[in-house]
Records
---
Amino acid sequence: MPPKKKFSAEQIVDAAFNIAKTEGMDSITIRKVAEQLGSSIAPIYVNFTDVEELKRAVMKKVSQMGNQMLHEQQTGSPFADIGAASLQFAMEYPVLIRDLVMKPSDYLEDYDQDMGAQLVAHMKLDPELEGFDDEELKLILLKMRAFQTGLTLMVVNGQLPALDLNAMREMLNSAAEDVVLAARLRKQAEDE
């Protein structure tokens, strides 16, 4: 009898991610991942107790990828980097974005907590956002996220064929300027 193939947790997560990026998170099953690896299901259960634990590991990978894209942007504005990274992710992984944004998902709770803290920390590096506390930055981020989500869905659904990535970045920057200016004016009015 030939020896059973052994796979690392990372290899298993990569196989599950390949399924998620083409078919969506709900399509990840232990059996499909095993097929992707050319294996039985046994090596998967050596590394993960069930499919839910595997899906959470896939979401952690998605979070790490998003963070990597964020750090690669270097637009000169940390806040603009967030939008640019989000657009890049949407363009590269439309099925996954559509799946994560359009469906209720328990997996996003961990993602939101991880990324939310990282994004607020990233926003604090932006001189344009100086003077805002964490709660104010979270509100600005939420408002921009609402705009960003709409734009992202339009991208993945092919509803902005006339706009290239630079035009979409300009639109994001303009919306961000409007949100930050309104927040600053509101803050000044409250301080008076």
Note: Residues 128 and 177 are 9 Å apart (CA to CA).
---
Amino acid sequence: MVDFKGAHYPKSVILFAVFFYLRYPVSYRDLKEIMQERGVDVDHATMNRWVVKYSPLIAAQAQTKKRPTAKSWRMDETYIKVKGKWMYHYRAVDRNGETLDFMLSERRDKPAARRFFRRAIGNNGVPDRIVIDKSGANLAGLEAVNVILKLTGTGQMIKILQVKYLNNIIEQDHRSIKRITGRMLGFKAFLSASATLDGIETAHMIRKGQFHANGLNAFQQFALLAA
């Protein structure tokens, strides 16, 4: 449950602003006008604080409530500009395109890849296979995870495939994330970038139908994750 105690605006207002920013390619200036049209006067800084504070909490809820995913994964990273520098947004989807996990990193190296794979496995279980690109860092990170699996005696090793065309599904999926972040014109800080991306990915998961909708629209599903 996400705690809204102490907030100076109603929970419904906060959730509407956060969801709209994460789901559609709008700037905070656009969102301020949208909120004013609905009779709510709130400044840019306040809405930014809402996104940074609540997005990771709602994303954590989403990981526990999403539908089961397949055991064949596709992993890749895309570029996100933070403080004027390109950073790396690690992402994984299953063979059906369902989002598994995501993580922003300042570096694209073996430790970052290993950290991402361990996080994804912690949230989704051990897959049968993972398709990656030709990146040596990603291969080394995944091989390190396999060593850990072997040493812990789980009896399960991950099959590693480096086949470019099999990764088309995640490369196409990057576009939905970039469509939203492109309007944001870069992030000023790593923390706010990571938090916002958590929320964007969650809104994208709702769009892909990864939760039991039970007749609820996209915003209602988002609000339910915060309930």
Note: Residues 11-67+189-225 form one domain.
